[in-house]
Design a protein that fits this description.
The protein has a three-stranded antiparallel sheet with strand order 1-2-3. A two-stranded parallel sheet has the order 4-5. Helix 2 packs antiparallel against helix 3. The chain is globular and about 55 Å long. The two termini are about 20 Å apart. By secondary structure, the protein is of the alpha+beta class. The chain has eight helices and five strands; from the N terminus they run H-H-H-E-H-H-E-E-H-E-H-E-H.
């Protein structure tokens, strides 16, 4: 639809379309970065190159306390959600090539956060200008725990922390 809309413009060359392979929150992260570059009067070519680099390097990972939110979004069957809830399974899900993929699941949040912390350490190796975007919905304590880990581990990182999440991920 964005490509069709671009062809309807008087000056289509003024519009660049990015295939982000992200969800609502992943796109929000990219929009914040884009807005910062625009505010800093970056050249169009630099913005396009930076956006493509960010899209390629960005990682999106989350967990949820209620498996039935994944049922409502069509990501999990009722039966699996019921079994997972009874067994107290907590998933870690990551976005890979535009698809939500189960990374791992555990039975305690202590193990979940340990795995998330490990994944952050692994994927951030070799990078110096790090940006983290943390959101929590109805789990402020978990969000604060992750915020403190990142702040202490990466003192120079840019961290955005919010309790707002787009509808794509919360249905």
């Amino acid at each position: 639809s964005s490509i069709i809309a671009k062809t309807m413009l008087d000056s289509p060359d003024n519009v660049t379309i990015f295939d982000t392979n992200q969800s609502a929150y992943g796109n929000e992260m990219l929009v914040f970065e884009l807005q910062e570059m625009i505010d800093n009067n970056e050249e169009k070519e630099n913005i396009i190159n930076r956006m493509n680099k960010l899209i390629k390097q960005s990682k999106l990972m989350f967990t949820c306390e209620n498996l039935f939110s994944l049922v409502a979004g069509g990501r999990l069957s009722n039966a699996k959600a019921m079994i997972g809830t009874v067994l107290r399974v907590k998933p870690i899900i990551e976005m890979i090539d535009g698809k939500l993929i189960l990374y791992k699941s555990e039975r305690t949040y202590k193990k979940i956060f340990s795995l998330i912390e490990q994944k952050i350490l692994e994927t951030s190796k070799g990078y110096h200008n790090l940006s983290f975007y943390i959101t929590h919905t109805y789990s402020e304590k978990s969000g604060e725990q992750l915020f403190e880990f990142i702040k202490n581990t990466f003192p120079n990182a840019k961290i955005r922390y919010t309790d707002l999440l787009g509808p794509v991920m919360t249905v």
